[in-house]
Structures are given as structure tokens and as C-alpha cells.
Amino acid sequence: MTIKHLMAAMLNGPKKERARALIKKHIRPIIEGGAVKMAAQLAVGPSGYIKLKRSIENKAIEISTDQFDDPKFNEERASLVANLIQERMENLSPAEFQDLLRPAFEEDEWILIAIGALLGLLAGTAQLFLMFAGSF
């Protein structure tokens, strides 16, 4: 697990709109700053300004992952991210922890159940054989 993969999941995963809204929230004050907004509206008009604003927000989202392609950056931040994830996971309740892990195993859940059943059958057969081996 790398920072690049985490960011890709955040920006392209099922809750991508939440992460994108957060980036847009931090970009808006820069775009909507008094002189910048006025100059842009004078240059391209009000409707052009709205298109320009959306374009800048989308570009900010697009380039937000570029930093995470740098191996040195990833290496420097790896321990911080690992510690943060560990801390957050330790603070989860058992039910929340199960909800976190369940999607990772859901696809192969039937395999786990089948192997558990097979191991249970083998253990039961071995126990039956060992307990009644002298009776035969």
C-alpha cells in the first residue's frame, strides 16, 4: 500500500466526490479572491468565469496525484501514513473493523467457508478414529 494507491482510491473510488469536494473547497478562496475574480470576469465574462473556475478546479484534482508519483516523496511519507493508518485502525470498534475488512474478503468468502468445513470434517473424523480406534 502506497500513498499513490491511497490517493488513487480516494480520488477515483466510490467516495471520490467527497475528496474532490475537499480539494475544490481549498481551491475556491484562491480563485474567488477579489482581484483574481474581478480580472477573470472582465477578461472572459461571467459565464466564461464559471467555466474557467470549473476548469481550474478539475485541473487541481487532476494534478493533485502528480506529487505521489515521486518515489522519494512516497518513501519519506510511508512511515507517517503507516502510523496514521495503524492509529486509526486501533481506534475502531470490533464492528467497524469487521466492516472495514469484510469487502476485502467478501469475494473469496465461500472459499474460506469451504476450507473451514473441510477442516472441521477432517478434525471430526480424526477425533472419531482416535477415540474409537481400540474398539475396532
Describe this protein with a few key phrases.
single chain; about 140 residues; mainly alpha; 2 domains; 6 helices; about 0% strand
Q: What's the SSE pattern?
A: HHHHHH
Distance between the termini: 56 Å
The SS-based structural class is mainly alpha
Q: Sheet with the most strands?
A: none
- Tally of domains: 2
Number of strands: 0
Q: Detail the poorly predicted runs.
A: none
Q: Give the count of helical stretches.
A: 6
Q: Give the percentage of residues in beta strands.
A: under 5%
Q: pLDDT average, as an integer?
A: 84
**Principal-axes shape call:** elongated
Work out the radius of gyration: 27 Å
Q: Helical percent range?
A: over 70%
Write the layout of secondary structure elements.
Elements: H1 3-12, H2 16-31, H3 34-63, H4 71-90, H5 94-106, H6 109-131
Helix pairs in contact: 1-2, 2-3
Question: Would you write up a description of this structure?
Answer:
The chain is an all-alpha fold. The chain folds into 2 domains: 1-91, no CATH class; 93-136. It has 6 helices and no strands. It has helices at residues 3-12, 16-31, 34-63, 71-90, 94-106, 109-131. Helix 1 crosses helix 2 and helix 2 packs antiparallel against helix 3 (34-63). The longest helix has 30 residues, at 34-63.
